Amino acid sequence: MIPGVAESLPAPELMPDRVYTLPELRYPLRLNVGAELLDSNAEGGRAGRPAVLAGPRTLTYGELAKRVNQLCHGLRSMGLDRGDRVLLRLPNVPEFIVAWLACQKLGIVSVGTMPMLRARELAYIAADAGTRAAIVWGALREELERAQAQAPVLKRLVVAGEARPSDTTLAGLMTGESERFTAVDTERDELAMIAYTSGSTGVPKGCVHVHRDILASADSYARHVLAPSEEDRFGGHPTLAFTFGTGGLLVFPFRFGASTVLSGPFAPEAMLETFASQRVTLAFCAPTSYRLMLGVPDLTRRFDLGSLRLGVSAAEPLPAATWEAWRKTTGVELLDGIGSTEMFHIFVSSLPGRVRPGATGLPVTGYDCRVVDEAGREVAPGQPGLIAIKGPTGCKYWRKPDRQAEYVRFGGWNVTGDVYVRDADGYLVYQCRSDDMIVSGGYKIPGPEIEHVLDEHPAVAESAVVAAPDATRGFIVKAFVVLAAGRAPSAELVAELQEHVKRELAPYKYPRAVEFVERLPRTETGKIQRFVLRQADVIPWDPAKRA
Known about the structure:
By secondary structure, the protein is an alpha/beta fold. The chain has 16 helices and 27 strands. The protein folds into two domains: 6-422, 3-Layer(aba) Sandwich (Rossmann fold), CATH 3.40.50.12780; 437-546, 2-Layer Sandwich (GMP Synthetase, Chain A, domain 3).
């Protein structure tokens, strides 16, 4: 184990044998996920097969291995090696995959960040994870350079894509180095990646995953639900920095010698065109994206989706109506699933041919799931409760043992905060979140984080943020704002507050609805009653009282 990490990364406890019933979930002590995903293909008879397709660019497994190995030498020449943390800030481009795999082969801990994050968010992650260097896409460098002033630990930037003459570049690190590199002899429970998520308190938490975790997700969910082969092409829009995308567009295809199809930012017609032209067989999208694609005129006449055999839906609940409409229009089943950054990927899923629209599905092979009350007692079928999970992956927080204890409860069960009902046949049906997390368009958005930023604006006395129903996104962010003395509501002020949030946080977090109120409803102890705000039973702003 890497020195200095042991106190923040307790050794995972093996669950009962009935959870570990699969031989492929038993891994040797020495294990390197980079070697398993890349070298086993490049050196195992698939060197000439396509690994990455990105528009006109295609990288075979052999070509990908050459680039990864060259970068391993280049990163080591910078003084980076086993146990160091490196921040990745790139869109869905082949360079992200090259950088991620090079980190794994070197034993470097990758810290992925979503492209829309702003400087304050990046600075927190860099400081918390202790990232000494970052690999950044040229068009995304500005916010990261601003973050460096707040996170002095982040000293070196390696630039991919468009660069300046003075930059250390990804291409430069890969020039003239040997095309061979033997993966570091890492342990199966050694740190491989830290994926940050924002909790309901608004403080991002680093979810730790080891080499074994990452492979276990492929060998449980992907193998037993998707049944992939080397002929499959995985596609979709989740960012590779989000574990939904890390699994669906990198780990899963490479585990089975298949191909991944990378595309730009999501747009309904562009996504359908990618599915058709690249002959995608397995699609990974949020429910909102499937709904938006269904709205494209003449969908099936304009786009040949004959290669598509399954669609995976996650990041928010999949409505039965969306499932029915997609199946009727395309003839393809959507498989709903629930996962979490803490668990790496999906642990409850619908199964091909056994979908029950409106239900998330059944526990993935290798996982045990229960629905429990607040004391950890299993509740009867039909009764709502917290979903609790045990399996080959599980929550380990980076340097936050107290938060880990909140998530891992009841004798080692992982409790996500999602409320479910188990029906008489064992299917799990989503009810709601138990906290103030807003799930909008596939993004999880903590309301308190937005409140903190709104309250910094001079026009705001205080604010509260909740989820408001929306036909397209499921929910949107809605802010209730009490104005400071001397300020009055206006459409211009709404736009000003929205732009203020966009400047400070990832743009998808901004409040799409703003309502000005005289005061916020509170309990006798002073806590804001957000359930009252969700019912919109509030006291509107009264100019007479502010005269």
